[in-house]
Amino acid sequence: MPLTALDPKTALIVIDLQKGIVSLLATHPIEAVIERVGTMSAAFRAQGLPVVLVNVAGVAPGRTEQRRLDGAFPTGWTDLVPELNRQPQDHVVTKHTPGAFTNTGLDAHLRALGVTQVVIAGVATSNGVEVTARQAFELGFNVTLAIDAMTDANAEAHTYSITRVFPRIGETGTTRDIIDLLQRSA
């Protein structure tokens, strides 16, 4: 389903655009993803809408078959990329699981602001972005996913999330689609 509307109180949630993550391999050029997210962030701020910048500083407990980064992260790993142009009014969330709502207070923060819809972008499409989108949907937020402002290390996983998962939990659109709707609803 194509993007139809943005609620009057919509927040942008940017997932894991941090120095340690963006240095890893990605299916799509990370510079383009960062540029698009930066453009959307500026558009949300210009409309006085909330921007949430999320980084990850740990992993969920439990065994997995796939190797993961456990223990101490290198210096600077969690630093947000400077291209996000973090502003004093931005809300920063540090998570320790794939989803930005787990044990972070993000739900309460957004509800206190009267937010009813979230636009989600960042990395990785099939992990942090998808888990956060699923959580937002389950919590009752309208969900929009900026499909040209995200990437993944695995092309098949990225495509699966965009084509199979996201249409079931929200609407998808490009950065331009979202900004155009944002400016029309102002």
UniProtKB/TrEMBL annotation:
GO molecular function, one term: hydrolase activity
Stretches assigned to the Isochorismatase-like domain: 10-176
The protein's name in its UniProt record: Cysteine hydrolase
UniProt cross-references to Gene3D superfamilies, sorted A to Z: Isochorismatase-like (3.40.50.850)
Keyword hit for Hydrolase: yes
Keywords: Hydrolase
PANTHER family with a match to the protein in the record: ISOCHORISMATASE FAMILY PROTEIN YECD, PEROXYUREIDOACRYLATE/UREIDOACRYLATE AMIDOHYDROLASE-RELATED
InterPro entries reported for this sequence: Isochorismatase-like_dom, Isochorismatase-like_hydrls, Isochorismatase-like_sf
